[in-house]
Amino acid sequence: AGISWPIIAFAVVAIVGEIVMRHTAFGRHCAAIGSNERVARYSSIAVLKVRLATYALLGLLVGFAVVMYVPRLGSASASTGLLWELEAIAAVIIGGTLLKGGFGRVWGTVVGVLILSLIGNILNLTDFVSPYLNGAIQGAVIILAVVMQRKSASDR
Q1: Which of 43, 93, 115, 118 counts the highest number of beta carbons within 10 A?
Q2: Per-residue burial over 118-138, b = 16 or more CB atoms within 10 Å of its CB, e = otherwise
């Protein structure tokens, strides 16, 4: 259908992630730990086991992403993923996940990824800003999103 494998894999992981986070005990436990770890512990959630499972799942997904990404470049180096964690945090924050934890949606993160990709592509295509400053632009977007979250939290 003309859709590349990384896009299909991204869609499948997002759909499975949304199902797991919304319809399983594991997802509810992750949300509870993210909201308030002490209350989750009092609710007899095995916090250490859930945290270990989330880190193991993270490692598995990172390995899957590497398998999908490396063939595009033909090689990988130690600096291949430099500053990608900033992009990931920015996408999550732009997607509406609260920095204090407790609320977030996979679909919001997908929208955050799309918005950041769109901003990056527009900046690269228009030559409005040097490609080396894309990280600074993303940092400014993160700061703006955090300020908006704080303002909406103070309105409640």
Answers
A1: 93
A2: ebeeebeeeeeeeeeebeebb
